[in-house]
Amino acid sequence: MTPMPATAAVRVRRAELSDLDDLAALEESSFATDRLSRAQYRRHLDSESAQVLVASANHRHFLGTAVVFFRKGTQVARLYSIATKKEARGKGVGSALLEAAEKLAARRRCVSLRLEVRTDNEDAMRLYERLGYRRIGHYARYYGDGADAWRYEKVLD
Ligand SMILES: CC(C)(COP(=O)(O)OP(=O)(O)OC[C@H]1O[C@@H](n2cnc3c(N)ncnc32)[C@H](O)[C@@H]1OP(=O)(O)O)[C@@H](O)C(=O)NCCC(=O)NCCS
């Protein structure tokens, strides 16, 4: 696997059918529980209420993904998932995905973006707090393996 050059620009685009293998593999390597299946990703690609984003460098080199959910009747968007390939972490991919998710939510007239994170996921919490997310709730035994979650929110411009 070619490593991501430190200077490569990260681009974020909508996921396509040809990304499904990369999406499923990244999900498998990033999360132990509560994973999105390939079939779920497939459905989200065509859904009005979801948007799957892909970060890439050097044209089509897949680096990471974010999944945003929208629900009718609410102006609160939900970041359901975000993950960067292990070898590309710490280079701004997660930040680029999160900023793209925020822009997308704002374009769909959402006033805030919310997300949940395992209370032991330090890397993710640092990213969220650096980008201006605030803790608004705590949920005991939120995840399939019994782990607790923090809920975070950012009010969008
Ligand atoms: C959480 C996660 C998505 C972050 O992705 P990432 O691509 O590493 O995120 P970034 O690179 O934007 O930010 C991470 C760090 O790199 C630093 N960084 C950002 N851009 C950088 C750049 N161009 N060069 C060097 N470092 C950079 C950031 O300052 C940040 O440091 P900090 O966390 O100490 O503040 C990633 O760790 C991951 O996939 N984890 C597994 C899945 C997961 O837990 N997802 C969250 C579920 S809620």
UniProtKB/TrEMBL annotation:
Signal peptide: none
One Pfam assignment: Acetyltransf_1
Keyword Ribosomal protein recorded: no
SUPFAM superfamilies, alphabetized: Acyl-CoA N-acyltransferases (Nat)
InterPro entries recorded: Acyl_CoA_acyltransferase (IPR016181), GNAT_dom (IPR000182), YpeA/RimI_acetyltransf (IPR050680)
Superkingdom per UniProt: Bacteria
Annotated ranges, domain N-acetyltransferase: 10-157
Key words, A-Z: Acyltransferase, Transferase
Acyltransferase as UniProt keyword: yes
PANTHER family recorded: ACETYLTRANSFERASE, N-ACETYLTRANSFERASE DOMAIN-CONTAINING PROTEIN
Annotated protein name in UniProt: GNAT family N-acetyltransferase
Organism: Dyella kyungheensis
